[in-house]
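Dear colleagues,

For the upcoming journal club I promised to circulate an example of a predicted protein-ligand complex. I picked one with iron/sulfur cluster because it came up in last month's discussion. The inputs are reproduced below in full, followed by the predicted structure.
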Amino acid sequence: MTQPDQSDLIAVNIDGREIAVPPGTNMIEAARLLGIDIPHFCYHAKLSVAGNCRMCLVEMGKPAVDPATREPIPDPATGRQKIRWVSKPVIACFTVAAPGLYIRTNTPLIKECREGVMEFLLINHPLDCPICDQAGECKLQEQATQYGRGYSRFVERKNVKPKRTLLGPRVMLDDERCILCSRCVRFCKEIAQDDVLGFTDRGSYSTLTCYPGKRLEHNYSLNTVDICPVGALTSVDFRFKMRVWFLKQTNSIDTESSVGANTVVWSREGVIYRITPRDNDEVNDTWMADSGRLLYQQIRAANRLLEPRVDGQPASLAAALSAAAGLLQIRTGATDMGETPMPPATAGQRGTGVSPVSADRKSELEKRRSAVAVVGSGRSSVEEQFLTKKLAAALKAPAWIVARVGEGDRLLLSADRNPNTRGALVTGLIRTLPSPTLTELAAQIDAGQVKTVVAVGEDLVAAGLTAAQLAKISVIYLGTHANATADAAKVVLPTLTVFEKSGTFINQQFRLQKFAAAVPGPLGASDDLAVLSPLVAAVGGPPPGATVAALWPALAAEISQFAAVTYQSLPDTGLLLDRTPWAALPFAEGETLHYQHPA
Ligand code: SF4
């Protein structure tokens, strides 16, 4: 983000304190910079100003000057220039910085204004906080407590409006809670570009609804739930499942595409209940796609891989790793070389059980290793791709990843549906952009040049290999869910979803962003790093770390873009890397929010 020139800044005075802000800054934002809260409902920093809730009323003044001489009029009480205060309060959301602007936010008049607004807003609002799903994050409840009068003079009957109206497949409306702030209306029109919501009737009978023949079903509909300041709009998937104050929040990244929208995963006792967007003005503002919010359901899918397998039979992790190493033509455990086998892995020692190969064995194995190929993934983390590359390098095996290209929606779903294609380039796993099909690998299998394939998180059949080609090779499959490749694999090593592990992705801007484990993985599945690391060691590569923290010193030492970076020091908003080495590549992405194709 470019910083404004200091000479462009405008000085304003809020509650007696001076602050210089960029032109166009409204008084809610200027006060926020001073740590002063101006309460509001309809104002949202990423939407147009509606000015209809009137909660942000403040007093406004200007230095007084003599109309005839334009000379400052002194204030006898202070000796300084007198401030001429406007007789009526103004709304702070619509008042932008101007030279010499004075604002008061905490006078008796403003206190009375806020109490009046709150009283009006609560006239028809049901007092059902104990059973409302918004409790714990309701702006109306919070501001009624902080700025309300504490009692109501309204003795008439409250309006009754429709309850539980499905506006679309994912959003439920409780109309009697709506305070008509129009945030949801403006979001649909201005951000989602689907003008679907509006108000009918007037006054106390105003009601939010969809336009005739329309539904709130675009892929950004759940953002209206996030920005609704009350409990009028709720998520069909989340409502009444869990009180928000019980939930743990973990920073994560949306893996749907190379946009890498920042997210928060809300979980309790190992169960994920919802995913919401996390503010990052450089990537996704405060929004995310609905489709990304439902990805957590994959962790409990019926086809989740939950036990290692060798030749279709359940096996221990140590046995599966030994079998994998055997397929890579590496001797493991107690064999003809007379070395001491590694003890079997216990539950607390996931990923061990493969002994390093001795030096004199290496040359003998070189030739046989040339029959191995590695298929990595653009969905793997930077750390996993780094180890995948190390595995391929130790085996002297070619490596590919699989491209996923869809249609970008010009907002937060880009054409590249892999979250980490850039990571594969930066780590050196690939040198050029991937193809959607593994044509080259298929040809090498047909020619008998490849006998064993290590597939890290990719379904080889979906990537174009046929069942006949799979039948000609031995497959070592690392993955989370069953598919045709897992079914055909000689060795299956179950791994973790993005919600169960930590790591980093590099998004379309070449922004390195980290994610953290929100919940523990299921019994039987291992961290990808804990599986890849012993395999690298087993094929003669330098013993790498098996955790994110342990790998970063090597990443920083070997990859110039990562110099001086550590996982711990990486900012929550990410770190922009130098993309110069890959500037000429024809990336698939078109325009999205905060991204223009460099071409
Ligand atoms: Fe505002 Fe919520 Fe009503 Fe929409 S449903 S107008 S966001 S209070």
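Two points we might discuss: The longest strand covers residues 57-63. The pocket of iron/sulfur cluster is lined by residues 178-184, 208, 228-230, 232-233 (CB under 6 Å).

See you all on Thursday,
B. R.
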